[in-house]
Each structure stands twice: as C-alpha cells, then as structure tokens.
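Posting for a labmate who doesn't have an account.
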Amino acid sequence: MATLRDIRRRIKAIQSMAKITKAMQMVSISKMKRAQQAALLGIPYADMLNEILTQATQHAGAYQHGLMENRNGTRKLIILVGTDRGLCGSLNSNIFREVAKYDRDTTLFVTIGAKAAQFVQKTGRLLIVDFNYSDQPKLSEARMVGRFVTQLFMDDEIDSADIVFSDYVSTFKQVPLTWRFLPAGQSQEFFDLMPESLKRTKIAEMQKGGNDNIVEFEFEPTVNTVCESLLLRSLDYQLLQIMREVRASEHSARMVSMKQATDNARDMNSALQLVHNNLRQASITKELLEIGSAAGMDG
C-alpha cells in the first residue's frame, strides 16, 4: 500500500505535468488562431484563381496542357502531408489510414512533414523525397513540392498523383481527405475534384451569371503561355492551401489533446488528494488511539 510520502510525490508529479500540458495548450491556442486565420483567408484567393483558370481554359479553344493528359497507367504517386510533431491526438493516424488503400509495393511517396516521412519509412513504402514546411507555410515551399511532382509527371515517370491530407473543418473536427493532384482537370471537373474547404460556396451562381455574354478572350502573349502560367500557379496555391489546412488541423487537434490531458491530470490529482486525506486522517486517528491507550495504561 502506498504511503503518504508516495502519494505526495505522485500529486506533485501530476501537478507539474498539468502545468506543462496547460502551457502547451495555451501555446497551441495562439498558434491555432493564426493557422485557422491563414487557412480561411486563403480560400477566396484559391477559389478565384481556379475560377480564372476555368474561364480561361473554356475560352482557349483546343488548349490542352501535358499536365491535363489522362493516362491509363498504374504508376501512382502520393503526396502525403502530415505534421512535424506529435501530441495532436489521432490526427496523423487518421491521415495515414487513408494510405492503406494504395499498393505498398508499387505506389511512390513524396512526404511533407516529419511524421509523414517517418510513417512511410517505418512501413517500408517507397519514399522518393521528403519536404519540410514552416509553421506558417509559404508559397515557395509549396512551389518546390509542386514543381518536383509536375516534373515527374511531364517526364512520364508517373501516371497520376494524389494528395492525402487532413482537411480543417472546425476546432474539434478534422477530416482526412484524398484529392487528385495530377492529371489536372479543367472546367467544372476541376472544382469537383477539390476538397470541400477549397470549394467556393456559390459555384453554381458563378457558372450561371456574369460570364455568358463573354464570347471571346484575348490572350497575351499567347494562349499556351497564359494558361500554363495559370495552371502551374493554381496547382502551387492548392498545395499551399492544403499545407495551411494541415497546420490548422494540427494546432487545433493539439490544443484539444492538451486540454484533455490537463483535465485528466486535474481529475487524477483530485482523486489522489482524496486518498491522501483519507490516509492522513487514518494516521491521525491511529495516533490518537495510541495516545489514549498509553494514557489509560498510565492511569
């Protein structure tokens, strides 16, 4: 049976742990607000960029870029986006569970985030390269990944590429999603393949109004130059937005996990305090009985 000293040590250790988890919770709250704001503010730009691309390709005649070529091959590449650190509940596990549907021996992987790279290596999958990204993702980081994958596609080394990531829905809900990155679609198909968080809320209105009276576009310097630039920039920004979504999901999940850990530590501390008080009361009662017995013998 634990002694009073043992109980006091456990209470002290749990109180110290509660302070640590509370501090981590407060840090996560601060980071979560910035990450959520970045993810939400990036959606209108991503949507407008895709709207421009859709309209441009619709009025570009028979324009067809190599990144839009549908291939019948089975050489698939997965861009797996995870977090850099743990302590964020089941977020990474839910993302990695999406990977289970792909063939372990034939699917190639490009990872973003330390945890994603560790998962691919630990499970014996084919990792080509792993990329890091900052706490506040930058367009240059997304462009580096996008250019690497699109070059593999243009060099005919892969037939398609998917992105597996966690879509930020709310502070308490993050949903693992798979989005087709390549070959890139066009027109309405491009929107249909986008995650819900990246879709515009009024796509139907955008399709119905405002553009029916536009019968001709003028492209400068050429159709190919304009559409290729829009396509590459759109793919880069979609990657950036997805990286922001994962960061927002990470900090939200970590905040919730640390809050739960703090609450559990406090509950455990209360239970141990009760045990401590009972043991202390029993010790005091025992000492009083011994004093009373000694006094009776002396009398």
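Reply:
Got it, the structure tokens are right above this. The beta strands are 76-81, 108-112, 126-131, 160-170, 173-182.
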